[in-house]
Design a protein that fits this description.
This protein is mainly alpha-helical and 253 residues long. It has one domain. The protein is 79% helix and 0% strand. The chain is built from eleven helices and no strands. The longest helix is centred in the middle third of the chain and has 25 residues. The protein is globular.
């Protein structure tokens, strides 16, 4: 994968836009349990291209998920977190390695498709009230590992799996955060071994991660009183539009 993109051409205004979106996305993610990985590609891809997006978000998510885990620490469901991690870690390695083999158009197609599919998938699982036992959770998590290893915006899958397994309320956000920290470390390790973590990628990830740190604590203040249906509808519209644009860009290359 060629990740020699021109960060030097990015202006301070564009960096400010990235920082602002990262901050807003961290609040959205802290309130809803998903959204950070779905929103950031929409501003990153036009600026730096598709190839470095997943590595950047994998590293920056270590910051956002760490702050979210601290903010909601008492709500973590450790048993289900271990079930998901035990099944998803090996397949996550495969997914992350597969991502490093993609072309630029392939990356756009994978990320765009994941974003577009995430909205109807969340709604179908919620409407059908799917319930998962420990065995089904483990099996589903293995599939989730492949997807999360090579895409961004797939957090909605983990969110849906946890809710289907019986995790509720703030416990979903907290357990998701702990699992995502471990998955993020695995992805970062694979990308590092594959040689796709340049100094520029790390610098961009640190900017996003540090700016987003306070978001989880603001989200904690909102989570008990903020109606989710409004921001969920807006987020769905943005994610679907962004995913469609990425797919179109991949087809036109």
């Amino acid at each position: 994968m060629n990740i020699l993109f021109g960060f030097a051409d990015i202006s301070l205004l564009q960096l400010g836009l990235v920082a602002f979106v990262a901050f807003v996305a961290s609040i959205v993610g802290g309130v809803a349990g998903y959204g950070t990985g779905a929103l950031m590609p929409l501003v990153l891809v036009p600026l730096i291209g598709a190839e470095p997006v997943v590595p950047i978000i994998a590293i920056s998510a270590l910051f956002t998920n760490s702050s979210r885990a601290v903010a909601f620490f008492r709500c973590i469901d450790w048993r289900r977190a271990l079930i998901v991690l035990g099944a998803s870690m090996p397949t996550c390695v495969l997914g992350a390695y597969g991502y490093t083999l993609l072309t630029s158009a392939g990356v756009l197609l994978v990320i765009g498709s994941m974003l577009c599919l995430s909205v109807p998938l969340r709604r179908v699982l919620k409407r059908r009230k799917v319930m998962l036992g420990d065995g089904a959770l483990a099996l589903s998590s293995a599939g989730y590992g492949v997807v999360v290893g090579g895409t961004t915006g797939s957090g909605v899958i983990l969110l849906s799996l946890l809710m289907a397994a019986g995790v509720e309320g703030a416990g979903v956000i907290a357990t998701d955060a702990v699992i995502s920290i471990v998955i993020g470390l695995i992805k970062t390790g694979v990308f590092g071994l594959a040689g796709v973590l340049t100094a520029q990628v790390v610098a961009f990830a640190l900017l996003i991660g540090l700016v987003a740190l306070p978001g989880a604590f603001l989200a904690k203040a909102f989570v008990a009183r903020m109606p989710l249906h409004v921001h969920t509808a807006i987020l769905d519209a943005v994610v679907l539009t962004g995913g469609a644009v990425m797919i179109f860009g991949a087809v036109m290359r």
